[in-house]
Amino acid sequence: MTTIEHLYDIYLRHPSVQTDTRLLQPGDIFFALKGPNFNGNTFATRALELGAAYAVIDEVPANIDDERLLLVPNTLWALQELALHHRRQFDIPFLAITGSNGKTTTKELIHAVLSSEYVTYTTKGNLNNHIGVPLTILSVRRDAEFAVIEMGANHQKEIEGYCRYTLPTHGIITNIGRAHLEGFGGPEGVKKGKGELYDHLRDNGGTAFVWRDSDDLRQMSRGISHIIAYGSHDAQFTGRVAPSKDSFLHVETPLGVIPTQLVGDYNLPNVLAALAVGKHFAVPDGKIRRAIEQYAPSNSRSQLIEQGGNHIILDAYNANPSSMRAAIENFARLPIGPAGSATDGAPNFPSTNGNRKVLILGAMAELGPESLNEHRAIVDLIGQYPWAKVVLVGGDFLKFDHPYLTFPDSLHAARWLREAGLKDAWLLVKGSRSSKMELVLE
User: Fold this and answer.
1) End position of a domain, from candidates 294, 312, 334
2) Structural domains of the chain, count
3) Rounded Cα–Cα distance for residues 283 and 287 (Å)
4) Whether residues 286 and 307 fall in one domain
5) At what angle do helices 285-294 and 268-280 cross, to 10 degrees?
6) 70 — alpha (psi -120 to 50), left (phi > 0) or beta?
7) pLDDT tens per residue, range 81-128
8) How far apart are alpha carbons 355 and 240 in whole angstroms?
């Protein structure tokens, strides 16, 4: 049986880990993970044929004797323990980020700010689960000065488990919203589950960056010995939404007004978190500004797209009741002028010209028994504003009466959009990952 110490010696010679043979590169260590519908052990010999240096397995293939097959009691356990062993080699800040909304955008902004001054490693994309977190830790190289780790969770004790092998010294909970209600067991369960990051920091003398505008986060962070507050007021680092002449968020800060490439006032705390982290770790002001200004969202997160003569806010990476409400309200407030672009004036100025705004919204997932009521609440919110057209796609949007156009899936909605012949319209496209709302634009 291979020990973690021996496995780490091999990792130091081959410091690249892979769990998917389709992404395997020569020299990688392949971990044969198992899931409900797959068994990586059956791909171990194939991984070696593709050039893997070693394959870590917990089931021995029949009639195969190869010293490059490393047997462990459980491959997922071995991956996480190897990550812990690697983590313990570093005496640098490890900043963990979790929350109901905005985790990835906050992580990317903070990485942009820190990497302008320091060698910084971070989570790629949204590899923020029980496999992605250890893989991220194992991607941190010896030259690292910072590590920024995103942690996603949909049930209690999950963040606690990540903290066990990430050992974060600093942490951010972006917000507490109505996300993954089914797995967490309701809103209080969300607080408890996300609060496991604060519990770790409290118990280990860590530092929390806390969004002061949130009553929940202020209460939950009590007792943490080191708190750095950011917010719209009453905080060490403050900022607010500034008037702008375009559709993008501009933030008034002590560093001056910072124009961003983000759409939506709800990104204000994400920007201020990056500013607070940068200032705390002595990143020069000019570098903080440039990093925030130059960050461009990708992967369907608050992207502003010009397509077919229309202006599209694509925010289709994920959705829950909190983020859906924020996106709709922000879109409703966005002032749209006659020429097809946002008018002068503050983003908070209510727009009375809603006849060129189109909502295309996909259903929200993982809400449990509250799902139908949460979808009804979104429909009620939609009814408070004027729209040119509202299109609701799939899931619980199809299970009750409302006056809006419905389609069973995003492909049917895409066909409608192609045939609608919209020109110079503004569209908000949003939905849970399972709704695949980005397909509406294809």
Assistant:
1) 294
2) 3
3) 7
4) no
5) 150
6) beta
7) 999 999 999 999 999 999 988 899 999 999 999 999 999 999 997 789
8) 29
Tallying the residues shown for the chain, one arrives at: 442
Provide the token pair at 345: 């004036």
Is residue 332 within 8 Å of 355, Cβ to Cβ? Answer: no
Which of 95, 104, 105, 158 has the alpha carbon at shortest distance from 131?
158
Whether residues 308 and 380 fall in one domain? yes
Q: Which of 237, 259, 294 is the last residue of a domain?
A: 294
Report how far apart the first and last C-alpha atoms of the chain are (Å, whole number): 50
- Residues 165-217 have pLDDT tens digits of 999 999 999 998 766 666 777 778 888 899 999 999 999 999 999 999 999 99
- The reply to whether 108 and 243 lie within a common domain is yes
Predicted local distance difference test score (pLDDT) of residue 341: 46
In this structure, are 101 and 246 located in the same domain?
yes
Interatomic CA distance for residues 326 and 320, integer angstroms: 10
Q: Are 279 and 328 part of one and the same domain?
A: no
Are both 108 and 223 inside the same structural domain? yes
pLDDT at residue 80 greater than cutoff 60 = yes
3-state secondary structure of 113: helix
Whether residues 110 and 21 share a domain: the answer is no
Q: Are residues 260 and 365 in the same domain?
A: no
Q: Which residues contact 39 (CB under 8 A, 6 or more apart)?
A: 32, 59
User: Which residues constitute the domain of residue 320?
Assistant: 303-441
User: From CA 201, how far away is CA 159, in angstroms rounded?
Assistant: 12
Tokens of 267: 């990104």
d(CA 278, CA 115): 10
Cβ(17)–Cβ(138) under 8 Å?
A: yes
